[in-house]
C-alpha cells in the first residue's frame, strides 16, 4: 500500500498491531525499491500528477 504525502516532521508514531514496517523514500528511491510492474506504474502516475499540477 502506498501513500503520497508531504511530512511536516520525520517523527512518526505507527500502530504496531497494523504495520510491520515502513520507509520514507523519495520517488527516485521508490523506483528502485519497488519491484512489481504495477507499483512502478503508480509511481509514474504520481510523477505525472505532480508535474501536471506543478507540485
Structure description:
By secondary structure, this protein is mostly helical. 42% of the residues lie in helices and 0% in strands. The protein has a domain at 24-55. The protein is built from two helices and no strands. It is globular and about 35 Å long.
Number of strands: 0
Approximately how much helix is present in the residues? 40-55%
Task: State which percent range the strand residues make up.
Answer: under 5%
**Major sheet:** none
Question: Could you state the order of secondary-structure elements as H and E?
Answer: HH
* Low-pLDDT regions: none
Tell me the number of helical segments per DSSP (H or I, 4 or more residues long).
2
Report the mean per-residue pLDDT as an integer.
88
Please give the radius of gyration in angstroms: 13 Å
Principal-axes shape call: globular
* Class of secondary structure makeup: mainly alpha
Give a concise summary.
By secondary structure, the protein is mostly helical.
Which short descriptors sum up this protein?
mainly alpha; 55 residues; 0% strand; globular
